[in-house]
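Progress report, Aim 2. The chain analyzed during this reporting quarter is listed below.
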Amino acid sequence: MYYLRLPYIQKLIVIYVAWIILCSLYYFFFVADRNDAPKDNTLQFALNKCRVHSLEPEPTILKDLNFSYQLKGNIRCMWESSQPQFYCPDSFKIDFKIIKQYLTSHPNKQLRIIGNYEQIELNEEKLGDLGYKRAQQLKSYFIDSLQYDPERIIIGSASIDSFDLDVYHEMIFNAYDLSIQDYHIVSAPEESRLLAIVQPIYFSQNFSTMLVSDSLKQYLIDVVNFVKGKDNFVLNIVGNTNDDGSDEKNLELGMGRAKFVELQIKDLGIIYTKCESKGEKDPRYDNNTSEGKAKNRRVDLQIQKIIK
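Predicted structure tokens for the chain:
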């Protein structure tokens, strides 16, 4: 054969050319048509959206008497963020609609949302903690996107130790705890109790931050749940000072503190508020001591009934 009589180099060239021709034929007949076909990335996109990390805890199970329902996954939240994230939004909407149907058919039940947080997370909230803000954001989602009844949702917060908070790549997998519990209706004795409470808010030495206590957080939760749907109650916000400075200056300073607090709680759902200042005229503690002066630098909150 002619090929066998060719020099060695020419044989290699012939083999190389033949290989290129075969590869080209394979590409045009078997690969090109496949690449030109329209791609369907829907499934891959869905898989990426619904990916569950191997370290993620088991999804929440909501239980109540004969009702038990497991969510498709956990509602996540980025570290130092209050915005809830749903790894598979469509599945979660189905979950939340089923829970809504249960609440609708059981008027004596309500959904409780607890926002979890770690103390070391940077918190830009001047009032309350990051956990409360997370619960508040999720509640807003239920109301705005799924038309939940606001009165059927209560919120709270919990400080979780870093060892118990499931965090991976700054994503918190157990940022929320959800549960179903009995719908709490404020009774007449409890109304009297709330009206009698004067809840103080204290401030740091340079007035840069409010000192938020557990009793303050619980009081605001009680007030928010109490005033919903009512137009005959107002939250009175009274600013107070110690006796440093003139009467006129202290009245102005007290009003500034009251307005500052009003601004911080305006997003909680308390519609009717009233601000006033007593200046230095209502000391609760001894102004002759540094501790007393600090505690007199406060704002008092009290629910009042409007007489129509």
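The first strand starts at residue 61 and ends at 64. The radius of gyration is 32 Å. These observations will guide the mutagenesis work planned for the next reporting period.
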